[in-house]
Design brief:
This protein is of the alpha+beta class. The protein has one domain. It is 38% helix and 24% strand. It has a three-stranded antiparallel sheet with strand order 4-3-5, with helices on both faces. It has a two-stranded antiparallel sheet with strand order 1-2. It is flat. The mean pLDDT is 92.
Length: 93
């Protein structure tokens, strides 16, 4: 992975939040949160995906049997940027 990709991933990861900073709010969390997930399944078109937490995680587990939460963010844009950066580099930081 190129140095600039690692720097970008680290910059985005610095904005991640702890799951303990959230509380359940119906099907979602309060405050709203967005996760970046890893799926290791040959049926997946991308290895790293994102979406509303925990709903997206449950969808991925139903579809692929398992997934791993990598990062949580308060902004959807951060989760999307992290998934894109990880998919571009195809590796974990």
């Amino acid at each position: 992975m190129k140095h600039s990709a690692v720097t970008q991933i680290r910059r985005i990861a610095a904005r991640a939040i702890s799951p303990s900073s959230l509380r359940p709010d119906g099907l979602l969390t309060a405050p709203r949160s967005y996760g970046t997930y890893e799926v290791r399944d040959s049926r997946a078109t991308r290895r790293f995906l994102f979406g509303n937490h925990p709903v997206r995680m449950q969808e991925l587990e139903r579809e692929f049997g398992t997934c791993r939460l990598l990062y949580l963010f308060r902004r959807r844009e951060d989760a999307a940027a992290m998934a894109a950066a990880l998919n571009h580099g195809e590796t974990m930081p």
